[in-house]
């Protein structure tokens, strides 16, 4: 009797191919691109500046104005407590005047250095040219409050 050879391909047939595409990697890539796009585009928002209670009403701009910082790092314009934004608007208004007034800066001895430095930068960025430090003689000895 002749020896019959079995057909090995009969047992190890590959599964039939389907015409469907695996969408999972495609969707993953699209989600990553969407997130990158959302992070790359700056968010535009509209704001309306309104003075709220407790922010301090703008004080008048005098020939000599004082910007002070107390020991709790609160900002004052001619004795009126202000937020940083309100002070910036006051300083911009003073800088826009034809005859620019003098802005005198007087921080408390216990005011933080960071707040004082940021306030000086705010005064400079507003365009104030007539600027004076007041009360420096009180701080001759480092570390001692008056």
Quick recap:
With 146 residues, this protein is of the alpha/beta class. It has helices at 24-40, 84-95, 113-126; strands at residues 64-69, 75-77, 80-82, 102-107, 131-133.
Q: What can you see in these coordinates?
A:
The N and C termini lie far apart (121 Å). The protein is of the alpha/beta class. It has a five-stranded mixed β-sheet with strand order 3-2-1-4-5. The mean pLDDT is 79. 29% of the residues lie in helices and 14% in strands.
Index terms:
alpha/beta; five-stranded mixed β-sheet; 3 helices; 14% strand; single chain; 146 residues
Residue fraction in strands: 5-15%
| Number of extended strands | 5
**What gross morphology would you assign?**
rod-shaped
Any low-confidence stretches, pLDDT <50, length ≥5? none
Multimeric status of the protein: single chain
Largest sheet: 5 strands, mixed
Rg, Cα atoms, Å: 35 Å
Helix content: 25-40%
Overall mean pLDDT: 79
Encode the helix/strand succession as letters.
HEEEHEHE
Distance between the termini: 121 Å
Class of secondary structure makeup:
alpha/beta
List the helices and strands and how they pair.
Blueprint lengths: L23 H17 L23 E6 L5 E3 L2 E3 L1 H12 L6 E6 L5 H14 L4 E3 L13
Parallel strand pairs: 1-4, 4-5
Antiparallel strand pairs: 1-2, 2-3
Helix pairs in contact: 2-3
